[in-house]
Amino acid sequence: MSFGSRAAAAMQAYGPACIGIDPHANLLEQWGLGDDVDGLERFAATCVEAFAGRVAFVKPQSAFFERFGARGVAVLERTVADLRHTGTLVVLDVKRGDIDSTARAYADAYLDEDAPMAVDAITVSPFLGFGSLTPFFEVAELNDAGVFVLALTSNADGHEVQHARRGDTTVAGDVLARLRALNGDARPMGPFGAVVGATIGDADWDLDINGPLLVPGFGAQGGTVADIRRLFGSVLDHVIPSTSRQVLAAGPDVAALRASAASVNAELVGS
Ligand SMILES: O=c1ccn([C@@H]2O[C@H](COP(=O)(O)O)[C@@H](O)[C@H]2O)c(=O)[nH]1
């Protein structure tokens, strides 16, 4: 089944929220864990226990695992496998992008179902040109995986590049239009998504890409359900709001983490 179909079915079954696994040093401390590989392992295992099979998407942030070198990456690999084993869709936030031949190696590393770190979808950066992302789209399609392209990021500096004019459009507008073309008329939606922050402010963008919209910036960065409703109105059913620290702050108690994730979904569905 295509990633678009799997994502739509998971949202229907569990609600739209994506819960991020971001083991910040201060969260490890709050959870009574060391800022070391053992702490990381305990943190990730607790997140798996809390969220696997209970939410549609989990988004591990690779940077917080890479911080601990090869042993941290090994923890990430086990975390991804444990989550996927339960059917929870894993969106790995790695923001990759490179020249064609290297992009293919990155795509093989994450999107080839036989790779040790195979995930359901990854985030990529279009900064080397949208065409440089072709290997990611090709490998994803072959493996029923997804790709989320940074379009309008949640950080305040993103607009410097993303709002830059490009002919009669903008850099972000062009990324969104190209994703729309790639997704064609796939039903229920195509596998190629955009990252659009809940914090972008204005609602003047055509976000109808017939693909999933991964929406970080919701929660700890200040984005609210009202922002999501205002920004995504007609394409709300394709929106995957993603939140990490807001939910993780409820840990390390597994029941409290589950309750926090459930209340995010309830709030979103109520919108
Ligand atoms: O535009 C973007 C793209 C990615 N992120 C990532 O999402 C999470 C946000 O964490 P919170 O704790 O919910 O703020 C983090 O991993 C970022 O690297 C983003 O924030 N904005």
TrEMBL record:
It comes from the Bacteria. Belongs to the OMP decarboxylase family. Type 2 subfamily. The keyword Lyase applies. The lineage of its organism: Bacteria, Bacillati, Actinomycetota, Actinomycetes, Propionibacteriales. Pathway: Pyrimidine metabolism; UMP biosynthesis via de novo pathway; UMP from orotate: step 2/2. CDD domains: OMP_decarboxylase_like. Its EC number is 4.1.1.23. It is an enzyme of class 4 (lyase). It catalyses: orotidine 5'-phosphate + H(+) = UMP + CO2. One of its GO terms (biological process) is 'de novo' UMP biosynthetic process. Pfam families: OMPdecase. NCBIfam families: pyrF_sub2. Keywords: Decarboxylase, Lyase, Pyrimidine biosynthesis. This is Orotidine-5'-phosphate decarboxylase. InterPro entries: Aldolase_TIM, OMPdecase_AS, OMPdecase_type-2, OMPdeCOase_dom, RibuloseP-bd_barrel. One of its GO terms (molecular function) is orotidine-5'-phosphate decarboxylase activity. Residues 16-260 form the Orotidine 5'-phosphate decarboxylase domain.
